[in-house]
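queue> pop job 88
queue> type: inverse folding (structure -> sequence)
queue> payload:
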């Protein structure tokens, strides 16, 4: 792309217009100041009609090769299931077109590595949809935490029980991270339980979100993974890193949508950064960092409730929504203001990456690493042992 075109809007073709694409990528591209919804491609006439009539797609087609090779199309948003990823990526690579690909990158290791090879050989900009990296709360939390781990400032009030004589520990500058996920499996679609469609279950298609964030925040190379799974609903994963960092991921899908889903806690160099459901970031003992930051919610149906924002504001809105849903016998009413999980920002940031005005958002190598960690967790849970990364 030449210098004069660096700031122009990019024409996107969305391939795969299922629920996720029509609820996130398609409306986000249509509303973006940096992208245009040029083409939507799917096998469903109903989905294509919605893309055209509701979201304003300029073109619709059932032929993904025609969409990719259209000279007016600048970039591809690939939102097919992970069963149909390699062929469109190969076609986009051959056409020299950037690709935003939904996660997980692939459902098998061999195909994932082939995708990685294709992307490297073509040298195209490539972003995998680990959207939480682009959530405003996560961007701030990562910036604060990595700066603190790289250049920590002494905490003047840090309590020291012994005035002298403490040993020197090599692990004193090593970070740790805890991830807690509260989910409700009744919200899942039927394909999740079909081994043909989802052979690894949520330990792959959901877990990669969280293994990626652990790698990103720890800033280290994973070495070994230990996992325990109770059916497909509850699991615990511990990731150990070559430089000593530890990350734990606890998921419970017997939880409730009446309470926030995600809690991230990062600790290191005697400081703490906490991200509560991407609504609020709290810090402790980190010089120059605000104690509390709150973030805008999306689709707020209760703007007069919980006006303080953050966790407490969301909690008040959620309680009001649940009461309304119970009174009306309509579970859909529980969805009030939701956290900004970064979907729209990820597309816009990827446009900046393509145009050379922004950093890499989530490249193929980071996505491959997160997927390998998830596969190590799958292997560990199945074989009841710790799994070293070189095994996957």
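queue> result:
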């Amino acid at each position: 792309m030449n210098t004069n075109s660096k700031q122009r809007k990019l024409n996107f073709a969305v391939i795969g217009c299922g629920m996720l694409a029509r609820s996130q990528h398609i409306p986000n591209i249509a509303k973006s100041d940096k992208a245009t919804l040029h083409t939507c491609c799917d096998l469903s006439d109903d989905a294509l009609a919605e893309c055209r009539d509701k979201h304003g797609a300029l073109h619709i087609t059932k032929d993904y090769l025609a969409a990719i090779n259209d000279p007016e199309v600048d970039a591809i948003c690939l939102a097919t299931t992970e069963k149909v990823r390699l062929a469109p990526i190969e076609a986009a690579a051959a056409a020299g077109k950037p690709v935003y690909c939904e996660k997980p990158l692939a459902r098998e290791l061999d195909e994932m590595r082939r995708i990685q090879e294709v992307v490297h050989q073509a040298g195209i900009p490539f972003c995998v949809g680990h959207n939480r990296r682009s959530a405003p709360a996560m961007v701030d939390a990562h910036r604060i935490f990595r700066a603190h781990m790289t250049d920590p400032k002494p905490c003047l009030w840090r309590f020291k029980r012994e005035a002298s004589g403490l040993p020197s520990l090599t692990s004193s500058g090593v970070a740790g991270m805890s991830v807690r996920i509260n989910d409700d499996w009744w919200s899942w679609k039927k394909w999740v339980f079909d081994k043909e469609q989802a052979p690894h279950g949520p330990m792959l298609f959901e877990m990669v979100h969280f293994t990626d964030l652990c790698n990103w925040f720890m800033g280290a190379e994973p070495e070994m993974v230990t996992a325990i799974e109770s059916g497909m609903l509850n699991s615990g994963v511990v990731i150990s890193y070559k430089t000593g960092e530890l990350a734990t991921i606890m998921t419970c899908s017997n939880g409730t949508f009446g309470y926030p889903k995600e809690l991230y806690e990062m600790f290191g160099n005697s400081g703490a950064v906490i991200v509560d459901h991407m609504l609020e970031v709290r810090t402790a003992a980190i010089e120059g960092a605000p104690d509390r930051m709150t973030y805008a919610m999306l689709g707020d149906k209760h703007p007069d409730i919980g006006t303080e924002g953050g966790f407490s504001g969301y909690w008040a809105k959620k309680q009001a929504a649940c009461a309304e849903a119970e009174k009306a016998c309509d579970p859909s009413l529980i969805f009030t203001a939701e956290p900004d999980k970064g979907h729209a920002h990820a597309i816009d940031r990827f446009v900046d990456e393509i145009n050379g005005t922004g950093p890499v958002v989530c490249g193929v190598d980071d996505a491959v690493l997160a997927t390998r960690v998830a596969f190590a967790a799958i292997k560990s849970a199945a074989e009841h042992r710790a799994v070293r990364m070189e095994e996957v």
